[in-house]
Amino acid sequence: MAEVEDTHPSYEDLEDLELEFEEVETEIVRKQYLLSTHLYAKRQAYISRIPHFWALVFEQAPPDIDHFIQPSDSAIIASSLKHVDLSRFEISPAPASNASDTGSPRSFSITFEFTPNEWFENTVLEKYFWYRRAKDGWTGLVSDPVKIDWKEGKDITEGLTDGAYKLWEAEKQTTSEVNGANGKAPKRRSPEHDKLVKKIESTTEGSLSFFTWFGYRGRSVSAKESAAAWEREAERKQMAKDGKTLTVPKDETNPDVDSELEMDREVFPSGDDLALSISDDLWPNAIKYFVQSHDQDDPSEGDFEDSAAEDSDDSESGHINIRDLVRNRHADEGDKESPKKKRKA
Description:
- This protein is an alpha+beta fold.
- Helix content is 50%, strand content 8%.
- The chain has 13 helices and four strands.
- A four-stranded antiparallel beta sheet has the order 1-2-3-4, with helices on both faces.
- The longest helix has 37 residues, at 11-47.
- 23% of the residues are buried.
């Protein structure tokens, strides 16, 4: 009797299977976005008529988001947040039947609209996240810092967003001069880098303002490097199907990337996780969180006592309840518009 050949799968086989699952998940994200675009437009038409909708949504944000909202952030969100939007900008909302829609649905932008306020001049803050692949096989989200025009003495990030933006601008200028527009940032310290590192060292992640997230960058992976890496991965998979092995250049298995410099200058280390929590949870489930905020407005007697105790604990810990801020603001606005209502029997 012939011996049965040992056909245990290799690690490469398992990795390729995981990639196939990821490809399916990516297509699900693409289809879901295209199919639900008109529903989000309908939702926006409804919620645009609801005062403080997004402030109340953030008040009920899941722990992965709420963890990063400090009392100073709550004050801005409650008083000034007008609208939030998400776009998967690399794919067309309504592609033509013969169009090639090859962008990644895992890339997205998140837009925050604000009313004029006492903290910054911007009325719109839009942050882009690109899903990219590095030549060493890493995949994930990268971003550019967003400039927030803080008013004098009102920067609640204590200079971190300004520092991140200035370093990014300096690196772009140096890279353009040395390597051309498609080059990578120079792997050496600069005055802007050292200044930012000093600011970062004086803070702790647990006390970071939510608005520091706008300074997040992630790894330095250019669009050009990512496109080449995806092309190389497709080539490797095809050769694997043909029973061949792709020879990977040494510089791709040991990339010339100064990861220490990239880690040193990161002002919001969990920036990609927070972005995904917003895009995959808070944004699609906004109505659910809004309803939850109103469910708490009509508690039972027992619940009211528990709520009062929680409010007391919040006051002692310095935590600010966004819902309470919204209520107070709404009451103030009502008093200004209809002062006689206060005397109504």
